């Protein structure tokens, strides 16, 4: 079994324990009803209590992170289930109910059925989730189909391996900010459901043609000339005809986020996009990767149907070049930092620069979250009467902000409203070793405005 499925295993087992307790409770109640001489209230209370305790434990299991779940299951829940078995046996003995089969045999049957179900369930899982991508990111040999190309895009967006309990995030980092399912809104970034359809109408909007810059003008941040697909850097350019298409809009969204800013999602009166330029550091997608992401965006809302995709497939030479560049296993490992990495690498790996300005980290100019001047900020936060967290020191506050961002939601003085809650990922605790967390906190807690 793959390691990332462990927590599904525990969730499954713990739910089974509750079902088992429910089954026992039900069977006791039936017996009590059938037999006059048995004390229904007494036994009902005893087995009802077991059911409640085991259920509460099951609920608690879902709040635990993966590494604590196994311990909890074996040393907390399982003993309770064993005790339940003992009491169950005692019930039959003390009430002289001979007609029933032995509790142990019944429990044995029950858990055998559970194991078979579990085996079936875990076998079925990998198909549900992503299969690992071809080695080295892209397969060189032969022609790629559009389905494979769009799948490559999906892997760039969500990563090849999903870790249970962690949000799936690939090299493109998009899910840090965007959601993709209808009705799923994360606050400060547009939901990308239906973006293929929108891409065609966007380029015809007045807002597209004139704001924040006009078509034909150059965006300073990215150096891209708006609405001119024939003038984007050569290696990213598609081949004609040069009529502005939905594909061009999507590519431009990634290469020049500030060329068009979705209403309500920008800064400075919707003239500046907080989205990073995807083909520049820190994300730095290559042309093929960027095209793959566009292909995926064009196909994602019509599963199995690639008719809407207009992006060209990479040629075999492209593939060879890409292979050389990507150097192997990009995106195949789940994100995790051990603490042996230099601080800059830790911060870049975790993606903090996409949302935060961080003094001392080149390229950390993100704008979705507050600038990290924690040496100056933390005393203010701790003094704020709205602060309800547990931290007493700058160090503790920084740690709390990283592990549990919602403990306190920072107020954005400039915008006159709080920063959006729920945008900062809540699962950094699972991507960091203890050592890495210490190193990160030490660094962040001492940041202050430069100059
Ligand atoms: C740091 C947060 C952030 C990241 C990371 C990010 N985006 Fe965005 N994105 C935004 C914001 C904010 C907007 C809205 C402002 C704008 O139009 O640029 C946006 C807009 C877009 C749009 C235009 C949507 C529309 O309705 O027209 C597309 C397409 C898009 N992003 C795709 C992506 C993809 C694909 C990735 C990953 C490769 C990505 N984004 C990564 C924040 C982000
Ligand atoms: C997707 C965007 C995003 C990413 C990625 C992100 N943050 Fe945040 N962060 C925010 C937002 C938004 C806030 C403000 C809302 C809040 O307080 O929860 C915030 C708040 C904080 C605060 C509190 C700041 C203060 O002045 O009180 C700290 C510290 C922080 N982030 C550190 C980090 C670190 C370290 C990382 C990387 C490991 C990181 N963040 C990654 C969006 C992000």
UniProtKB/TrEMBL annotation:
Any one GO molecular function term: electron transfer activity
TM spans (from-to): 12-31, 43-65, 71-92, 104-124
Coiled coil, from the record: none
Region Disordered: start-end pairs: 312-335
Key words, A-Z: Heme, Iron, Membrane, Metal-binding, Transmembrane, Transmembrane helix
Keyword Membrane set for record: yes
Domain Cytochrome c intervals: 160-301, 338-448
Key word Lipid metabolism present: no
Bias-annotated ranges (Acidic residues): 320-329
Protein name in the entry: Putative Diheme cytochrome c
Organism of origin: Nitrospina gracilis (strain 3/211)
């Amino acid at each position: 079994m793959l390691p990332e499925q462990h927590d599904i295993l525990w969730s499954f087992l713990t739910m089974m324990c509750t079902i088992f307790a429910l089954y026992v409770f039900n069977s006791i109640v039936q017996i009590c009803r059938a037999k006059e001489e048995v004390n229904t209230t007494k036994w009902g209370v005893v087995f009802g209590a077991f059911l409640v305790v085991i259920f509460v434990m099951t609920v608690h299991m879902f709040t635990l992170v993966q590494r604590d779940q196994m311990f909890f299951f074996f040393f907390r829940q399982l003993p309770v289930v064993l005790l339940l078995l003992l009491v169950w046996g005692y019930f039959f003995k003390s009430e002289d109910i001979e007609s029933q089969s032995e509790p142990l045999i019944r429990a044995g049957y029950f858990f055998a059925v559970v194991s078979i179900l579990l085996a079936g369930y875990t076998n079925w899982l990998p198909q549900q989730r992503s299969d690992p991508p071809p080695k080295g990111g892209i397969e060189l040999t032969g022609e790629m189909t559009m389905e494979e190309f769009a799948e490559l895009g999906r892997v760039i967006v969500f990563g090849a391996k999903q870790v249970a309990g962690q949000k799936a995030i690939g090299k493109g980092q998009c899910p840090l900010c965007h959601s993709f399912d209808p009705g799923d809104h994360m606050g400060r970034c547009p939901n990308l459901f239906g973006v293929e359809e929108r891409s065609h109408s966007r380029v015809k909007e007045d807002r597209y043609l004139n704001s924040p810059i006009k078509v034909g003008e150059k965006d300073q941040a990215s150096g891209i000339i708006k609405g001119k697909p024939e003038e984007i850097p050569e290696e990213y350019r598609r081949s004609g005809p040069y009529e502005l298409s939905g594909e061009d809009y999507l590519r431009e969204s990634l290469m020049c986020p500030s060329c068009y800013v979705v209403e309500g999602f920008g800064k400075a009166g919707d003239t500046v996009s907080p989205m990073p330029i995807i083909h520049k550091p820190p994300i730095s997608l290559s042309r093929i990767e960027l095209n793959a992401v566009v292909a995926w965006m064009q196909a994602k809302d019509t599963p199995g149907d690639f008719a809407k995709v207009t992006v060209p497939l990479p040629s075999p030479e492209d593939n060879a070049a890409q292979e050389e560049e990507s150097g192997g296993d990009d995106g195949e490992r789940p994100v995790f930092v051990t603490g042996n990495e230099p601080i800059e690498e830790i911060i870049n790996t975790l993606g903090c620069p996409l949302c935060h300005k961080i003094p001392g980290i080149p390229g950390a100019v993100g704008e979705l979250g507050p600038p990290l001047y924690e040496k100056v900020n933390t005393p203010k936060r701790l003094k704020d009467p709205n602060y309800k967290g547990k931290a007493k020191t700058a160090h503790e506050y920084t740690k709390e902000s990283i592990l549990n961002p919602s403990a306190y939601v920072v107020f954005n003085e400039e915008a006159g409203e709080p920063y959006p809650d729920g945008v900062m990922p809540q699962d950094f605790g699972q991507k960091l070793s203890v050592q890495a967390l210490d190193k990160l906190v030490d660094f962040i807690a001492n940041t202050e405005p430069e100059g």
